[in-house]
Amino acid sequence: MTLAVDFLPPGRALRQQISDDDRLKRAVMFVVGIYLVIALAIPLFVMLSKSLSTYTFDLHQFEFQVSDESGGGWSDPVTAAALNTAIAAFPESDLEAGADGRLQAAKLFADFSFRSPVRYRIRGTSEEAHFLAGSQLVRGTEWKEYDSNHFRRVMLRPSRSVGLSNFTEYFSTPSLVRSIKNSVMIALISTAVTLTVAFGLAYALNRSRMRGKGAFKLIVTIPILVPSLLPGIALVYLFGNQGVFKDLLLGHSIYGPLGIVVGSVFFTLPHAFLIISTALSVADARHYEAATSLRASRWRTFWTVTVPGARYGLISAAFVVFTLVITDFGLPKVIGGQYGMLAVDIYKQVIGQQNFEMGAVVSVILLIPAFLAFAVDRMTQRRQVALLSARAVPFEPKPRRGFDAACFAFCSLVAIFVLGMIGMCQVAALVKFWPYDLSLSLRNYAFDLMDGGGWDAYYNSIRLALMTAVIGSLIVFTGAYMVEKTKGFGLGRGAFHMLAMLPMAVPGMVLGLAYIFFFNNPGNPLHGIYGTMAILVLCTVTHFYTVAHLTALTALKQLDPEFEAVADSLKIPFYKLFFRVTLPVCLPALLEIAIYLFVNAMTTVSAVVFLYATDTKLASVAILNMDDAGDIAPAAAMGMMIFYTNVAAKLLHAVVARLLLARTQGWRQVAQTAVPA
Amino acid sequence: MKHATAPAEPAMPVSANRQSERRPFLEISGLWKAYGDFVALRDIDLQVKEGEFVCFLGPSGCGKTTLLRAIAGLDIQSRGAIRQAGQDISRLPPAQRDYGIVFQSYALFPNLTIEKNIAFGLENIGRPRREIASRVSDLLDLVGLSSQGRKYPAQLSGGQQQRVALARAMAISPGLLLLDEPLSALDAKVRVHLRHEIKELQRKLGVTTIMVTHDQEEALSMADRIVVMNQGGIEQVGTPTEIYRHPRTLFVADFIGETNQFPATVGKGAQVEIGHTRFACAEHLLPAGAAVVAAVRPADIIPHGADAHRATGLEAVGNADNLIDAHVEDMEFLGMFWRTRLSAPRLKETPLVADFSTNAVRRLCIEIGSAIQVEIPQERLLLFAKA
């Protein structure tokens, strides 16, 4: 008879000896984890601390003594503050400083001359005070003595204090605060429009029997292949000051909210479409049969069955679109005119005004909606799984002539919109001088004649994309494997998973800025990679880590969880299993990750715009710079180069995947013709 | 689910007796496993002899798979020790233990051919190529798949895949073979066929084997000894016949085969009172006057006057106390026998289910509505303390 004793005998829980395999797996996971810490966690932390730092010159912290003409007979010590009050060498505004601020001490002495025999002494009144003598940093309360010639090279340095004063300053600058309102408004409107269009598309493609579904699906994904700058350029040509359809706007300007919304709808459409389409494709036919048998009208069925069934998809898509729009920088930069947006503010503060602290403040503010969206998305994803695992009867739409025709018309409109934008860019790129000389020429592709980086920028982009694809997919897949297949070590795996999910919530601008703060610090041993291709690869891999990580995890979860147990019983070390079985079986997913990273590395602007150097200019950045310089046609041409490249990469991916799969995945084909017992 | 066909009592395997004197090959003592607050295994003590075929049998959630995974080192126990071949393996990682394992899902490597699947373990320990090839072909012969070596797993049927998994597990000649519900994913016919093959193979190779199953038929037909488990504990360990004939608990009696159960009171000696009338029952250790459950298997009930029981060597009427008048309420033809529902005044409301052979039914002209006499044999009327 079983006694219901529900407690363990006292003592410590047995712990398994850690095998060499486990040790190796943990070590590899640790290495990838360190990568994420260095490439993500620490830079973000540095940025956060930067946003809380203010630098001011505290003139009470310095004391001086002046000698007479003979170099002896020292005056009484006097503070810099007192000197400044006396002669007003520095106005109050000069005392607000950045991290790099410096004040020339000699300016405090009205009769200073570097040829004079007068000598000067300087010391700090506290340990924190520090100043530069030439290039040498001096701190402390010891007197230091300089002759006039050297004293002119003494520079006071500001002291750092931690607090919210940057934020206070931010919120008391009306133009900056307006950006928050603008960004949220634009993001909300774009989300509403994109969701409506994407839902219509997904509904038509999943629930009708119209023709040309394949073509429409292909067309909708085009915007993924171009930088978000490109719709901006297209809109300039279509509706700008010399635009083809300028009159259609009835006097409204495309530069501003209107342009940003239309462009945002263009570049977020594929993302929303893919998510909603997935949600709609798992429909359960039984619900529709039940609705029909209950004599519910089509309209009612739509609102009581279709929409609730896709609600998690809709919520998820809404947050994805909202985040994309609010964190996008390229589009408002090109088409936004004077309309302030958060992401552009970061760029302006950092590149335009060199105000890094304020850039960090805007970054922190930009992280809030992104984090919120990320959290909600994770929550709904979890529920979506439960929906998918239900055993459903797939829904088969029946032909309905009127409805199918309406769907076709709607999809055609969207297709015209997408193709029109791309087509406009193509025309702009090929025309000699819009709109005065419409003869065709390849002049706009002569990038070497323009500012922005020339063809080198394009080749750099290809290099970046290839390196990101190869290095990224290896790092991501390895990390995912270790986190999925390591036993025990729950804490480490949990932390790793958190880190891997984090990049999704970090906008590119924020990541790029964080990289400046972290890597451009001469004290950082990794300072050497600043301004090289390596930091661009590092940044891009990290920026797009999450989606790639999730793709790898999904593929790994589809493997039989007992493979490792079997390999253990056969004494096969995990790396042999990894290379003989896991990797070959997951090859399609690996290629998927590689092409995802490639395409995104080609199109990304936001993170790398802070990090490129003269010899690592990129195509996407070149578009930005050429557009800035007024070379819009070459900018469009460069955008089209990225588009061609991505199309070619996609085609190559399809061919390679085919060939490779035919060679290494023979077992998949035979699976379909398997004979039952 | 219980099976409608209560199996005939299996004959005692010869091997079980022969091996009983050897020292245990696998020794489990004081084993506990907890997941948070949930105790999945409680105080398990078990010895498995070398060459023995042991089945862990129990309903789902009873802890049988957890125990197997603890032996394999896949989910280490919270307390307790496991010794294999004289060595303490309690804390060893799976790769340092000596076993081959077969899962319900087969877990064949999908991108490797059958040959490569079997050879994987051998290649790893660096055997020469020729030796590997001959070993692989031997193993394929052994499981009857010699012509299928170059196919991929997906090209084989479930039963064939499971045989490959078995061959792969045996390739490195492990000291212990662990089978985790190996037949559960297969159709009924394949299952019966394959369980015979596995048993044959095990006997031929003499490898100590532990199989987890929830199917009592599988356990009864394959095992030298069965470990019946329930709610994380061991209910009884014994040969199939012991388990079937002398269940130690009501759970075992009910889980292995089927039982009629009556509320009863223990009388003096080997006597029990059911519904105010007295029956003679099997020997027991329960105190007089205790409220108990009396149980008898449907197949053990003897229709009075039939010749059916003579083959077993029992007297026509064992004890007059155990002879009861009954009325046939319902009969169901199940092929090998008739399942009969009887009502008897002596048993009050509780109906009695009896399985009568086709033969006996014909001879005694038993049909719905007829009145008959049946005997509950004394030694088959078992008493159990109330759960």
TrEMBL record, chain A:
<feature type="transmembrane region" description="Helical">
    <location>
        <begin position="641"/>
        <end position="661"/>
    </location>
</feature>
<dbReference type="Pfam" id="PF00528">
    <property type="entry name" value="BPD_transp_1"/>
</dbReference>
<feature type="transmembrane region" description="Helical">
    <location>
        <begin position="260"/>
        <end position="282"/>
    </location>
</feature>
<dbReference type="InterPro" id="IPR000515">
    <property type="entry name" value="MetI-like"/>
</dbReference>
<keyword id="KW-0813">Transport</keyword>
<feature type="transmembrane region" description="Helical">
    <location>
        <begin position="405"/>
        <end position="431"/>
    </location>
</feature>
<feature type="transmembrane region" description="Helical">
    <location>
        <begin position="184"/>
        <end position="206"/>
    </location>
</feature>
<dbReference type="GO" id="GO:0005886">
    <property type="term" value="C:plasma membrane"/>
</dbReference>
<feature type="domain" description="ABC transmembrane type-1">
    <location>
        <begin position="180"/>
        <end position="377"/>
    </location>
</feature>
<protein>
    <submittedName>
        <fullName>Putative 2-aminoethylphosphonate ABC transporter permease subunit</fullName>
    </submittedName>
</protein>
<comment type="similarity">
    <text>Belongs to the binding-protein-dependent transport system permease family.</text>
</comment>
<dbReference type="InterPro" id="IPR017664">
    <property type="entry name" value="AminoethylPonate_ABC_perm-1"/>
</dbReference>
<feature type="transmembrane region" description="Helical">
    <location>
        <begin position="464"/>
        <end position="483"/>
    </location>
</feature>
<dbReference type="InterPro" id="IPR035906">
    <property type="entry name" value="MetI-like_sf"/>
</dbReference>
<feature type="domain" description="ABC transmembrane type-1">
    <location>
        <begin position="458"/>
        <end position="653"/>
    </location>
</feature>
<feature type="transmembrane region" description="Helical">
    <location>
        <begin position="495"/>
        <end position="518"/>
    </location>
</feature>
<feature type="transmembrane region" description="Helical">
    <location>
        <begin position="218"/>
        <end position="240"/>
    </location>
</feature>
<feature type="transmembrane region" description="Helical">
    <location>
        <begin position="530"/>
        <end position="556"/>
    </location>
</feature>
<dbReference type="GO" id="GO:0055085">
    <property type="term" value="P:transmembrane transport"/>
</dbReference>
<feature type="transmembrane region" description="Helical">
    <location>
        <begin position="577"/>
        <end position="599"/>
    </location>
</feature>
<feature type="transmembrane region" description="Helical">
    <location>
        <begin position="302"/>
        <end position="326"/>
    </location>
</feature>
<feature type="transmembrane region" description="Helical">
    <location>
        <begin position="27"/>
        <end position="48"/>
    </location>
</feature>
TrEMBL record, chain B:
<dbReference type="InterPro" id="IPR003593">
    <property type="entry name" value="AAA+_ATPase"/>
</dbReference>
<dbReference type="InterPro" id="IPR050093">
    <property type="entry name" value="ABC_SmlMolc_Importer"/>
</dbReference>
<keyword id="KW-1278">Translocase</keyword>
<keyword id="KW-0547">Nucleotide-binding</keyword>
<dbReference type="InterPro" id="IPR017666">
    <property type="entry name" value="AminoethylPonate_ABC_PhnT2"/>
</dbReference>
<keyword id="KW-0813">Transport</keyword>
<keyword id="KW-0472">Membrane</keyword>
<dbReference type="Pfam" id="PF00005">
    <property type="entry name" value="ABC_tran"/>
</dbReference>
<keyword id="KW-1003">Cell membrane</keyword>
<dbReference type="InterPro" id="IPR027417">
    <property type="entry name" value="P-loop_NTPase"/>
</dbReference>
<dbReference type="GO" id="GO:0016887">
    <property type="term" value="F:ATP hydrolysis activity"/>
</dbReference>
<feature type="domain" description="ABC transporter">
    <location>
        <begin position="26"/>
        <end position="256"/>
    </location>
</feature>
<dbReference type="InterPro" id="IPR017871">
    <property type="entry name" value="ABC_transporter-like_CS"/>
</dbReference>
<comment type="similarity">
    <text>Belongs to the ABC transporter superfamily.</text>
</comment>
<keyword id="KW-0067">ATP-binding</keyword>
<protein>
    <submittedName>
        <fullName>Putative 2-aminoethylphosphonate ABC transporter ATP-binding protein</fullName>
    </submittedName>
</protein>
<dbReference type="GO" id="GO:0015697">
    <property type="term" value="P:quaternary ammonium group transport"/>
</dbReference>
<dbReference type="InterPro" id="IPR003439">
    <property type="entry name" value="ABC_transporter-like_ATP-bd"/>
</dbReference>
<dbReference type="GO" id="GO:0005524">
    <property type="term" value="F:ATP binding"/>
</dbReference>
<dbReference type="InterPro" id="IPR008995">
    <property type="entry name" value="Mo/tungstate-bd_C_term_dom"/>
</dbReference>
<keyword id="KW-0997">Cell inner membrane</keyword>
